[in-house]
Every structure is written in C-alpha cells, then in structure tokens.
Design brief:
Elements: E1 2-3, E2 10-14, H1 19-30, E3 32-39, H2 45-56, E4 60-63, E5 67-73, E6 85-86, H3 91-101, E7 107-111, H4 122-130, E8 134-137, E9 146-149, E10 157-159, H5 165-175, E11 182-186, H6 193-200, E12 204-209, E13 244-249, E14 254-255, E15 258-260, H7 265-277, E16 282-289, H8 296-303, E17 307-315, E18 320-327, E19 335-336, H9 348-355, E20 361-364, H10 377-387, E21 391-395, E22 398-402, E23 411-413, H11 418-428, E24 435-438, H12 450-458
Parallel strand pairs: 2-16, 3-14, 3-15, 6-7, 10-11, 19-20, 23-24
Antiparallel strand pairs: 1-24, 3-5, 4-5, 7-9, 8-9, 11-13, 12-13, 16-18, 17-18, 20-22, 21-22
Helix pairs in contact: 1-2, 1-6, 3-5, 4-5, 7-11, 9-11
The structure holds shikimate-3-phosphate.
Shikimate-3-phosphate binds near residues 20, 345 and 346.
C-alpha cells in the first residue's frame, strides 16, 4: 500500500471501540450470570478471537455488529472445548483467558498465530502456577501453545517485574476463583479496565498505592504507602514511586451488565498525531476513552507543545470519555519515561514517528516492553524511520529521536504489526515521495476501517 504527502487533514473521526475493554466485556460477560449487552464492541480480528474462544466453551454469544449479546452461565458455567482454543494474534485473549482456564474443571490447549507463539508467557505461567494452576508451554519455550488443567486455586501475593495489565488481569481473574484474597503488585500502575469492569459486574477489587506517592494515575485509590514488595515472588525489593497493588477477593458470582465501550485512544492516537504533525490540519475525534491509565499520550502531546483540547468530558460505564480536537502544531522534543510508560505503551510507535517532526531531541526510556509486542517495536521503529531519513538511535529500553530532519518516502515493513502499519501510513503523509508499506492489511487486528478513515480526512 502506498502513501504520499498530503496538504492537510480535516474532519471528524469516530474511532472504533476500545480493544482492551471489548475483550473484557465478552470475557467477563461469559463468566457472569445472565445477559451482558455490549455496545460499540470492536469488530477487529483480536476481539473476534475472544468471542470465538468463549463460543467454543459453550457460551451463547450473538455478534450483531453494533451490539454483542453474551448469555453468561456463571463462574462455573464454561464447558470443555472440543478443539484447541485459537487466540489468533491476541496477547490479551491468550493471557487473560489463561487466568480463567486455570480454575476450570477441564483441560484445554491454547494457541495462536506465529507472532503469539513467540511472545513470552512465563509472566503468567509463573504466578498462575504459584496459585496452584497446572499450566505448561507445550514446546518448553515459555510460549504458546499452552496446556492448562484447571485446579483449585489459592490466593497469593505476587510482585510482577513488569507493569502489565495482561499479567495483572490474568492473576485477578484466577483470583475470582481462589480460596482467599489475591494481591498483585506492579512497578507502575498499568491500565485498570479489569478492575473497573470486574467491580461493575459485582466483584470486589481495590487498588492500593504500593510505592511512595507518584499518584498521577493512582489518584483517588491511594491507601497508606508500603514501599516494599509484598511477600511472595522474588523477596522484598524496594518498589519505585508509582507502584500499585490490585487486590481481589474471591467471588460467589459475577452479574451480567450493560457495557458501553468508548472509542479506543490507541486508535485515536494515529489521528491525534497526524493532526499535530501535518501542516494545515484540524481533526475532531469523537467519543474517545480517556481513562488516566491509558491517556499518557495526552500528557506527552501537551509536553511537546501540541494544540489539543478536550471537549464534552463525560463518564460511560465507569470509563471517562471525551471528544478531542487537535490542530497542526510546532512541536518540541521531550523525555518520556517511568510511570507514564504503561499509560501510552501502545502509542509509542506513533509518538516516536511524531517526534521526527518536533524540534530537538525526544528520549523514550523504560520501555523495554516494546520489544515483546506484536513485533519488536523498538527495532522495527528504528529500522523504518531510519529508512525514511530520520535521525534515530535504538537503545536497550527505548529510542532517541533527533527531530527536525525532513523525511522521505521509503519501502517499510509492518512486520505484521497493526500499530506499525498505521504509524507509517500517517508518517507517509508527511514525507516527500512515496512510502510503501509491506503487510499493510494487518490493521484489521484493531482498526479494520483505518485506511478509509484516514483517506476521508486527507480529501
Ligand atoms: C493490554 C495491555 C497491554 C497492551 C495491549 C493490551 C490489555 O499489554 O500493550 O495492547 O488489554 O490488557 P501488556 O499488559 O503486556 O503491557
């Protein structure tokens, strides 16, 4: 697929539903009692994988497109699937479902595409095993395929080395079925959609600030600071400021509910950055989720001098949303590190590309997690931006971008990573010559209509 410079981007976009929240609505609805009605469910391939996995475990799910209806059978209402569960390209499906499957009274095998079969699963195998689950990597490489035999689970107090909502959520879901309280501490608070939605479905989950206070994301949830890791895991190590602990009590049952999925800020990010970095542009993004554990990009845009306005801020099913207006801006470099990283982890490829159009240096650090996403996003961003003439250095845990050099079109590869494909479609609109993206189709993972929406704004 090819992209050339555009003269400006104008108009409104309503991005599709949030991927993380969509997954959770079907998962939690499937193990809740009664009907869950989901509005604005993301019809991307990842979220369709989640629907198909639960249908294979006997859950009646009707996908009407605009509305998804899930007839949950309760915490013990899943049945043994006849086939292997295929999670496709979806890390969220693979990891969260593992937490649920660890407590069932049947055996199951989980797998996914070539990318999923390379992504690290030790991060969930270890805590779920500590809870008493029988979970193993079939090929012994700590990756999928995984076999899981449900067991009686015990509550644990676990300290995760990485700030990962997928790890935290897998443990919390297993914790629903455990014989006592389960605690998960992470170095920085990651997205808290599971905590919000589990409570909304009737579970008992709370968040405590585990480190000294950097409360920008954990605001309102802080209890007395405990600056040391809870027992379990690898002993008592000091935690950084911003560390957070999620605590869940076992549940009798969850109850189905109505879920309004807000637009995905990770999808909106491509248009936010496109509007800021393309001259003569003004874009209004409608109904975007701005949960503080996801909205780090808004903070970074403001730090870089971007012209961004939040309009009509409101609360959906416990998830704040707003319309967001952006206009072309003179941007300057910034440093992106520490507690903000988990709140914009999926947006970093697009932010790195935008930094090429900012004056001065942008440093991204503490983001080694980018290496284990759908592609190694540090290496792939460095490779593709360099091909377009940018001055970029790859580091162990991020990128250093010296902005201000004009970019030229090049042949770039998405590495089958949807966020890389969308990043370079936008970047190609701000470069001389032709940018050709190999493997551009993978946007169907999270945003099937992306190219049509981008094209409409460029007219
Ligand atoms: C997600 C969490 C993040 C994110 C992914 C979706 C989720 O992954 O990158 O796209 O829905 O919980 P990690 O938990 O591995 O950081």
């Amino acid at each position: 697929m090819e992209f050339t410079r555009c003269k400006g981007l104008h108009g409104e976009v309503t991005v599709p539903g949030d991927k993380s929240i969509s997954h959770r609505s079907v998962m939690f609805g499937s193990i809740a009692k009664g009907m869950t009605e989901v509005h604005n469910y993301l019809q991307g391939a990842d979220c369709l994988s989640t629907i198909s996995c639960f249908q294979k475990m006997g859950i009646e799910i009707e996908n009407r497109g605009d509305v998804v209806l899930v007839r949950g059978n309760g915490l013990r209402g899943l049945s043994r699937p006849e086939q292997v569960l295929d999670c496709g390209n979806s890390g969220t499906t693979t990891r969260l479902i593992s937490g649920i499957l660890s407590a069932q009274d049947f055996d199951v095998t989980l797998t996914g595409d070539a990318s999923i079969r390379k992504r690290p699963m030790k991060r969930i195998i270890e805590p779920l095993s500590l809870m008493g689950a029988s979970i193993a990597s079939v090929n012994g490489n700590d990756c999928a395929p995984l076999t899981i035999s449900g067991r009686k689970l015990h509550g644990i107090s676990y300290t995760s080395k990485v700030a990962s909502a997928q790890v935290k959520s897998a443990i919390l879901l297993a914790g629903l079925y455990a014989d006592g309280e389960t605690r998960v501490t992470e170095p920085y608070l990651s997205r808290n959609h599971s905590e919000i939605m589990l409570n909304y479905f009737g579970a008992d989950v709370r968040t405590e600030a585990a480190g000294a206070a950097d409360s920008f994301a954990a605001a309102g949830t802080a209890e007395p600071a405990d600056t040391f890791a809870a027992a379990g895991g690898s002993g008592r190590a000091p935690l950084p400021a911003g560390a957070a602990t999620a605590v869940i009590r076992p549940a009798e049952e969850l109850h189905g509910n109505l879920v309004e999925v807000p637009g995905d800020i990770s999808s909106a990010a491509f248009f936010l950055c496109a509007g800021l970095m393309t001259p003569n542009s003004e874009i209004l993004l409608k109904n975007v989720g701005i949960n503080p554990t996801r909205a780090g990009i808004l903070r970074v845009i403001r730090d870089m001098g971007g012209d961004l306005t939040l309009l009509d801020e409101r609360a959906g099913s416990g998830e704040p949303t707003a319309d967001i207006l952006v206009r072309s801006s003179s941007l300057h470099g910034t440093v992106i590190e520490g507690a903000v990283i988990p709140t914009l982890i999926d947006e970093l490829p697009m932010i790195a590309a935008m930094a090429c159009f900012a004056d001065g240096v942008t440093v991204i650090r503490d983001a080694a997690e980018l290496k284990v996403k759908e592609s190694n996003r540090i290496a792939v961003m460095a490779e593709n931006l360099t091909a377009m003439g940018a001055d970029v250095t790859e580091t162990e845990d991020g990128l250093i971008i010296r902005g201000g050099r004009p970019l030229h079109g090049a042949a770039v590869d998405s590495h089958s990573d949807h966020r890389i494909a969308m990043t370079f479609a936008v970047t190609g609109l701000c470069a001389d010559g032709v940018t050709e993206i190999a493997g551009a189709d993978c946007v169907n993972i999270s945003y099937p209509q992306f190219y049509q929406d981008l094209d409409r704004l460029a007219r």
